[in-house]
Design brief:
alpha+beta, Beta-galactosidase, Chain A, domain 5, 2 domains, 8-stranded antiparallel beta sheet, 8 helices, 25 strands, about 15% helix, binds 6-O-phosphono-beta-D-glucopyranose, Aldose_1/G6P_1-epimerase, EC 5.1.3.15, transmembrane, GH-type_carb-bd
Length: about 475
């Protein structure tokens, strides 16, 4: 026998001994007087525990139920039966996983939230919360007087990190793989904002979590900058999309390539309000899909469509706050030798001279025509964020440093050290859409061991 261990998987009644009567019920035929024989499935395991192909055994039992002989036979019929059984089990497991990947529950305040889960590893919580969750801590009656919801995506933990985060005052940057992405949204009305938040179940801590003053976005997470990036236009800083109520889109048009197969996801939709049309008179729809992969990687896919009227142009950016150990310990690879516009020098154009971007003072730059993979290496945490992107040629790198941080009401004086914004964006050459045309941008975020990218980034760039 090639295996070192033979495991007999019998029915529970067989396992505890087979009385002749039971053998007979199972169709056993007495080979000799006083003996009984029957066929049962067996599974063989080797010393490493891997399961060998199952076989069927013919067992001969003595009169008192002891096994006196084991023979292997009937391989094909047994394979058929077992395959059928495995198929049913797989189907049931898939059903169970599907059920558990989207679960609507209530939080301790009785508010609905949706938990997105992947069977192994990461989870995401889509929390249907009040927009004013800062307020409801202190004015609970407000909970009942508004119909606005905050949908909050919370990335769970796939790398064994604790979800309890360095809680930056006014900023929800967790220590987990990709922070937390959140947006405010509501099924019916249109009046809230994108924001980021984290909930580790400790409601009492939420009052520390943000300057949450709708319609202004909270700092942190991955707000969507649209249709303007920064102050390069007449609209509010980074455009209005991050300050709007998005709706959950139950029936989005299919993507040309579905990057979110095997991932749990949520689809969001924003259409312009009357007020938006006054400041930006273009008929558009912007869709945003958030996908959580089995291993906790996050994919964001955004689509902007010109739904009628005249052509229009826009800028777009994923304003991505990453949690880092210390800004002085971080380097960004993938931007070397590129030209950049320095926002701190009236957008003057320079060329990156270093072999990586490192930080010693305030940085606010737009790197132009960057490769599709950027790596943010955190030496102290021994972790690298990989940013893969499509349709987003520019990369904004921003850290306010000490002086500016002190002037920002929603950033603690020292908190600039634990954050870096690396925004995949399209800024220098805005996108122009003719009527009926659609633009798609995609961002993949993952956290990998520190050394990973050094060996792999070049390979990934070719993807
Ligand atoms: O405070 P906001 O509006 O979120 O913007 C923060 C920063 O975002 C960066 O993307 C910009 O380049 C900076 O100029 C800006 O200060």
């Amino acid at each position: 026998m090639p295996c070192e261990k033979l495991a007999l998987e019998l029915s529970s009644s067989l396992m505890i001994g087979l009385p002749p009567r039971l053998g007979s019920e199972l169709g056993a035929v007495p080979p000799f007087p006083g003996q009984w024989r029957c066929r049962v499935p067996i599974a063989m395991c080797n010393s490493w525990g891997s399961l060998m192909p199952p076989l069927c055994a013919e067992l001969t039992f003595s009169e008192v139920g002891n096994i006196v002989e084991v023979g292997l036979l009937d391989f094909l019929s047994f394979i058929l039966v077992v395959s059928f059984g495995l198929l049913i089990m797989a189907h049931l497991a898939a059903l169970r996983d599907r059920r558990s990947e989207f679960e609507v529950t209530k939080d301790c305040n009785g508010m609905d939230h949706v938990v997105l889960r992947v069977p192994r590893g990461a989870s995401a919580r889509v929390r249907c919360h009040l927009v004013m969750f800062m307020i409801f801590l202190w004015l609970p009656t407000y909970v009942h007087s508004t119909s606005q919801y905050l949908v909050q995506l919370e990335l769970g933990n796939s790398f064994g990190d604790s979800i309890s985060a360095p809680r930056l005052k006014g900023m929800f940057i967790s220590d987990t793989i990709l922070e937390i992405m959140a947006c405010s949204c509501q099924h019916i009305s249109t009046n809230t904002e994108w924001s980021l938040a984290m909930d580790d179940g400790n409601q009492s801590e939420q009052k520390d979590m943000a300057m949450f003053k709708p319609p202004k976005a909270m700092r942190g997470g991955i707000p969507i900058c649209f249709p303007q990036f920064g102050n390069r236009g007449s609209l509010e800083q980074h455009g209005f999309a991050r300050n709007k109520m998005w709706t959950i889109d139950d029936n989005p048009p299919p993507l040309n390539v579905d990057y979110c197969k095997e991932k749990v996801s949520v689809n969001l939709l924003l259409k312009p309000s009357e007020e938006d049309l006054k400041s930006w008179p273009h008929c558009f729809e912007i869709r945003h899909k958030v996908c959580l992969a089995m291993d906790g990687d996050l994919t964001l896919i955004s689509r902007v469509r010109n739904i009628n009227g005249r052509p229009f142009s826009f800028s777009f950016g994923y304003h991505t706050y990453l949690s880092i150990s210390d800004i002085s310990e971080v380097r960004i690879e993938g931007l070397e030798t590129l030209d950049y516009l320095d926002n701190l020098c009236q957008r003057e154009r320079f060329t990156e001279q270093g072999d990586a971007v490192t930080f010693e003072s305030e940085v606010d730059r737009i790197y132009l025509g960057s490769p599709n993979v950027i790596a943010v290496l955190d030496h102290e945490k021994k972790r690298t964020f990989l940013i893969r992107k499509e349709g987003l040629p520019d990369v904004v790198v921003w850290n306010p440093w000490e002086r500016k941080a002190k002037s920002m009401v929603d950033l603690g004086d020292e908190e600039y050290k634990q954050m870096i914004c690396v925004d995949a964006a399209v800024i220098e050459k805005p996108v122009t859409l003719k009527p009926g045309e659609e633009w798609t941008g995609r961002l993949d975020l993952s956290a990998v061991p520190y050394t990973y990218c050094i060996d792999h980034v070049d390979h990934l760039r070719g993807m």
